[in-house]
Design brief:
The chain has helices at 4-13, 37-47, 79-89, 125-131, 149-156, 167-176, 196-205, 219-232; strands spanning 28-30, 50-53, 71-76, 95-98, 112-118, 132-143, 180-193, 235-247. The protein is an alpha/beta fold. It has one domain (4-247): 3-Layer(aba) Sandwich (Rossmann fold), CATH 3.40.50. The chain has an eight-stranded mixed β-sheet, with helices on both faces. Strand 3, helix 3 (79-89) and strand 4 form a beta-alpha-beta unit. The termini are far apart.
């Protein structure tokens, strides 16, 4: 059995580019939301004339769509992910733009009849509304407040629960931009880590769980998590997800 130091070194050495989570196979699991975002998005893309994926990561999810629309674009802010996305999405004929998460979208008004986004870090609702055609839709799976709160507190101690990702606040922001929310679904899902190397890799990859995380700064907390996994078999946390669909009224 690998030692604490060996597991930590493995998690610290694993590459974090893109949103491919295959490295976690056998080391961590996360329950999937019941609505099946990738399949749902794939069906909608097959019906669209033009589609945009905002904050695509490495394009891994968009790359699974069975039939791309005639016009397909994606944006991503992190340069290493942009390169990965361009490789992954080239077979679909998609154009990938490097765009900061807080920057306006580099597209004309009413360019797309479908805009999607999986786990966006920031949503510029006025920009989403601007680039949607009348009757077009925004479909997004988002991270809810309190996601992996147990893991955050294991590293930092008690922290107050946030409200910025409350689905009701997101609905209000979409409506303030002139969109009509037609679907909202929520789910709380089990996340299990089976070794501390998976915890290290996750915290390096999903940066907002513990902002500023480094192995050196959190070695004592990691050792405590390792000991807990050894005693209990896993470290249990929970993620929160919600699906939102908002439509731009046809008369807009």
């Amino acid at each position: 059995m690998a030692t604490f130091e060996e597991l930590v070194e493995e998690g610290a050495a694993a590459p974090v580019e893109g949103w491919d989570f295959s490295w976690f196979a056998g080391r961590a699991t996360e329950e999937r939301p019941p609505w099946g975002y990738a399949r749902l998005m794939g069906r909608r893309m097959a019906e669209a004339r033009s589609g945009l994926d905002v904050q695509t990561g490495g394009g891994e999810v968009l790359a699974t769509i069975p039939a791309p629309p005639p016009r397909l674009a994606a944006t991503e802010s992190w340069p290493p992910n942009v390169a990965v996305a361009r490789r992954n999405l080239a077979p679909l004929g998609a154009t990938v733009y490097e765009v900061a998460d807080d920057a306006d979208l580099p597209f004309p008004a009413e360019e797309f009849d479908l805009v999607v986004s999986r786990h966006p870090t920031r949503i510029l609702w006025d920009e989403i509304a601007r680039v949607l055609r009348p009757g077009g839709a925004y479909l997004s799976q988002q991270i809810g407040d309190g996601t992996n709160h147990e893991l955050t507190e294991a590293m930092t101690g008690p922290v107050p629960a946030g409200t910025a990702r409350d689905p009701r606040r997101v609905v209000a922001a979409a409506e303030a931009a002139g969109l009509t929310v037609v679907d909202l679904r929520e789910a709380t899902l089990r996340v299990e880590f089976f070794d501390v190397g998976a915890v290290v890799h996750f915290l390096r990859k999903v940066l907002w769980t513990v902002p500023g995380f480094t192995v050196e700064a959190y070695r004592d907390q990691l050792k405590a998590v390792h000991d807990r996994i050894q005693a209990e078999g896993s470290f249990l946390s929970h993620s929160r997800r919600f699906l939102i669909e908002a439509v731009k009224p046809a008369g807009s």
